[in-house]
Each structure stands twice: as C-alpha cells, then as structure tokens.
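Last lecture ended with a question: if I hand you only a sequence, what can you say about the shape of the protein? Today we answer it with a concrete record. The protein is DUF2809 domain-containing protein. Below, first the input exactly as provided, then the predicted structure, then a couple of comments.
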Amino acid sequence: MISEGIGGAPRTRWAAAVAAVLTVAVGLGVRALLGGSVAEHAGDALYTVLILALVVLVAPRLRPLTAAGAALAFSWAVELLQLTNVPAELSRRSVVARLVLGSTFNAPDLLWYAVGAAAGWCGRRALAGRRARPAPASAARS
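The predicted structure:
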C-alpha cells in the first residue's frame, strides 16, 4: 500500500471529492462545447474517472491499480447490464437511473471506459507518488 502518513486518508478523500466535482464539470463542458461522438466518447471515459474518484473517496487507501480496476469493473458491469431490459426500464422512470445506468448497450463504450480507468490510474498514481516522497533534506533541517 502507498504510505500516506498521518492525515493522508483525509487529504486523499478531499482530493477525490475535488476530482469528482472537476470530472463532472469537465464532462458537462465537453458536452456543451463539442457534442457528437467526441463528447460521447469523452463522456464514457469521464464516467469511469468519476467512478474511480468515488471509489477513492470511499476507500482512500486502495492502491491506484486496485481503485482503477474497481472503477473499470463497475463501468463494464453497468454497460453489460444494458444487454438486459433492466436499465432501459429504469431509465424511463428516473433521470438519475438514466445518468447512472444508461439505457442501451454500445460495445465501443467498453474501450472508452478502459481509457478512463487508465487516465484515472495515471492521475491517482501521480498524486499518490507526490505524497509518498520524503521531504527534501534542506526542508528537514529547517
């Protein structure tokens, strides 16, 4: 596990919450500014980034690869669930269900979820690596 020191989990949760809010903002921005297939694919990737941020928010001490894997597995499970009638039926009844579950299966989405998980893993790993580095020797002497 990545060492976060005293107070690391609260900082990680804070960063995950900020990442979740920023991910939603970026998703809405992409949708408003770009539209079309670019927005659709970016939305798929950002969906998994959002799930990753929520996983880290709930379990901040998970290794980056484990958190990314959990987010990817969730995203794929939701997409595969769309092969049944359940998400489409729930989506007709609830806007929240439509946002979370979607309604129709689209095989290329599986690839874009993997892109999102990889991007989220890179970001999570970079942040975890920054926190795990020891303080420079000059700072330790102060």
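Comments.
1. Residues 91 and 99 are 8 Å apart (CA to CA).
2. Residues 8-33 form the longest helix (26 residues).
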